[in-house]
Amino acid sequence: MSPTITAFKASPDRGRGLARDMRVRWALEEVGQPYDVRLLSFAEMKEPAHLALHPFGQIPTYEDGDLALFESGAIVFHIAERHAGLLPDDANARARAITWMFAALSTMEPPIVDRMIAMLLERDQPWCEQRLPLVEDRIRSRLGELSHRLGDADWLDGAFSAGDLMMVSVLLRLGGSGLVEECPNLSAYIARGEARPAYKRAFAAQLAVFTAASSG
Ligand code: GTB
């Protein structure tokens, strides 16, 4: 039996790969694990059947046999633990790759999410014009620090790992902001992630949901 994940039936980003099922799809593609997708409307995400899987009524979730998970970070970590290809064998290198997953989710992603919220939900607030530059400066600092650490390496710590998968996924949420372009090595880093065949397959699969919905 293949695992089943959940994703938006109608993603607000029109299939641009910004919703968090994308990172789970990418991880599954990297390890060569086929998967099924259950598409949900916003209303269905708040119904008891889905709330039993996800206490916050969100996507993505992951079901495999009697295991049900939520939180994209936990799901990607689980996939990386169960299959070869996303975490190094060496114990210390493995711990460092996991550290980069946490860094992506708990250091880089929060200000990036703050910016998305400011842009999408707080635009008409009188204080938004003052707040947005502050949020962007916080992101800029983090990007500068990350850029410094990456230097001219291809990936954050040796070979591509779940840490890079998560970091690239998070940075992609800055698309169109112009912030990443201030650090050319980070632009190249993201492009390397997007060039991976597994990324392309995952992107095509989530885009196909949008394409099918808009042509039907
Ligand atoms: N911490 C959780 C995780 O990492 O899994 C966060 C999950 C989450 O935020 N899920 C969002 C969701 O289900 C979708 S990804 N939202 C519906 C709800 O809360 O009712 C966030 C997201 C949504 C849309 C875009 N977009 O259109 O660009 C991008 C990202």
Which helices and strands occur, and which strands form pairs?
Layout: E1 4-8, H1 21-31, E2 36-40, H2 42-45, H3 48-51, E3 61-64, E4 67-70, H4 72-82, H5 91-120, H6 128-150, H7 162-171, H8 184-194, H9 197-215
Parallel strand pairs: 1-2
Antiparallel strand pairs: 1-3, 3-4
Helix pairs in contact: 1-4, 1-7, 1-9, 5-6, 5-7, 7-8
Bound molecules: S-(P-nitrobenzyl)glutathione.
Structure description:
- The chain is of the alpha+beta class and 216 residues long.
- Helix content is 57%, strand content 8%.
- The chain contains nine helices and four strands; from the N terminus they run βαβααββαααααα.
- It has a four-stranded mixed β-sheet.
- The longest helix is centred in the middle third of the chain and has 30 residues, at 91-120.
- The radius of gyration is 17 Å and the shape is globular.
- The mean pLDDT is 96.
- Bound molecules: S-(P-nitrobenzyl)glutathione (GTB).
- The site of S-(P-nitrobenzyl)glutathione has 15 residues, from α2 and α4.
